[in-house]
Design a protein that fits this description.
Length: 115
């Protein structure tokens, strides 16, 4: 198989990675609706809170983050997705607070639906 075909598949599907990712994957939407409402500031806040650059993994292996195209929840802009859970109407402070909650609660299951 041609390397270009492999590269095309790996870069198209979000479940394939070209480098290690954290246990908790943070995707910050920076597409139009989110960008207009501060998505890039959320991205910067997440990076500041985690202390790593985009696409790097924290030293404990728990987190990595990246910017993302529209996550289909524009009505919640600006928003981010951690694993399979959406967090919307964020500010830099509330984004950092979500991450702080995860850092202090090692057993938090982000994929569990709140009731
Ligand atoms: S632009 Fe961010 S969810 Fe659509």
């Amino acid at each position: 198989m041609a390397p270009a075909k492999v590269y095309g598949v790996v870069t198209f599907y979000d479940l394939f990675h070209q480098r290690p990712v954290g246990h908790h994957r943070v995707r910050v939407c920076t597409n139009l609706s989110c960008a207009l409402r501060g998505g890039n500031e959320i991205l910067a806040a997440v990076g500041g809170k985690l202390g790593v650059h985009e696409d790097e993994v924290t030293a404990d292996g728990r987190f990595s983050y990246t910017h993302f195209e529209c996550l289909g929840a524009c009505e919640q802009a600006p928003m981010m997705m951690i694993n399979d859970r959406y967090h919307g109407n964020l500010t830099p402070d509330t984004a950092a607070a979500v991450l702080a909650q995860l850092e202090t609660n090692l057993d938090t299951d982000l994929n569990k639906t709140e009731s």
